[in-house]
Write a structure and sequence with these properties.
alpha/beta, 4-stranded mixed sheet, 13% strand
Length: 323
């Protein structure tokens, strides 16, 4: 296997270090719509942007780098073509299981029946480096999922844990794992119930049924269906490109609004919401926000600047967060 190739950021970015080397740079495209926004595009359209093991780790390293770069304040993930992400690369998974069974057969003629499934472990941040990403384990900055089409399995698990989800009218969500004999174990099951409730979560994970963008919005899984008054750009290849462009452009607009706010306040506010998301009690969560984050930002540069700018009736001039 050739050595990983480090992608070079455009000259307009303000990163202190270059993006991490990627094992498959053609599968994960990095771009910077503004100096403060990172856009990650899954680029395996012929495979509906299924993610293999190497890409999981590539994405984990990309999001780790994003969090460590003070000048980057908001991330966006989308997919190229007609799919956001159709889940795991089952062809790779099948090959891995076949190799494991073969090795076991050589050892005990197949009597053990054990299999390690995909072989190599997934990164601690989960599917695509996103499905288990949270403030206590990496993940201090917001990420928006711009869902341009098919969003199945692990792709859906990434969206469930994203900070905001914008969807094309043609986006469709599902957890079809039960149909192929596996389980959504990348963090989606336990998080899904917090958003949609037990009965709807059971419906999705036990039947594998598909949910359209508008229904997903009604369930609280999607913040906004972009262009829901039309067909998302017409039919054919031109329509596919247009719907991708539309949802991504809207995600960039939302990311710009986030970047206009105090980066310290964004980090601490996200932390506070995730205290409740991860199952912490209300008062315990509030106490931790105050003791672990508020006290670190109180009286800091951005807090002083924000109050001063309000009093002086001018736009604030934020500095990069040091939290």
């Amino acid at each position: 296997m050739p050595p990983p190739t480090p992608p070079s950021p455009p000259a307009t970015t303000r990163t202190r270090t270059p993006p991490p080397p990627l094992t498959s740079p053609q599968a994960t495209l990095l771009s910077f719509p503004t100096p403060q926004i990172l856009l990650v595009t899954l680029n395996r359209p012929e495979s509906h942007n299924c993610i293999d093991n190497a890409q999981h780790w590539d994405l984990h390293r990309v999001w780790e780098w994003f969090d460590a770069e003070p000048g980057l304040r908001c991330g966006i993930m989308t997919g190229k073509g007609s799919a956001f992400c159709a889940g795991a690369d089952l062809k790779e998974w099948n090959r891995s299981m076949s190799l494991v069974v073969g090795r076991q057969g050589n050892k005990d003629n197949g009597k053990s029946g054990k299999s390690s499934g995909r072989g190599q472990p997934m990164p601690p941040t989960g599917f695509g480096g996103l499905s288990r990403r949270h403030h206590l384990l990496h993940g201090k900055k917001p990420i928006i999922a711009a869902v341009n089409g098919v969003c199945f399995g692990g792709g859906f698990e990434m969206c469930i844990n994203a900070d905001m989800v914008l969807a094309s009218p043609r986006a469709v969500f599902a957890l079809p794992e039960v149909r192929v004999g596996v389980v959504a174990v990348a963090g989606g099951l336990t998080r899904l119930v917090r958003t949609v409730g037990k009965q709807r979560a059971m419906e999705l994970c036990l039947t594998g049924r598909r949910v359209g963008a508008l229904e997903a919005r009604g369930w609280g899984l999607v913040n906004e269906v972009v262009g829901c008054g039309g067909d998302g750009g017409g039919g054919g290849e031109a329509g596919k490109k247009e719907k991708w462009k539309t949802v991504v452009l809207r995600a960039i607009e939302v990311a710009r609004v986030i970047c206009e706010n105090s980066p310290d306040s964004v980090v601490v506010s996200k932390y506070g919401v995730e205290m409740g998301w991860e199952g912490c009690g209300v008062e315990e969560g509030t106490k931790r926000v105050v003791e672990e984050m508020w006290e670190r930002m109180e009286g800091g540069e951005n807090m002083r600047e924000g109050v001063r700018a309000f009093v002086e009736k001018r736009p604030p001039r934020w500095v990069d967060s040091k939290l």
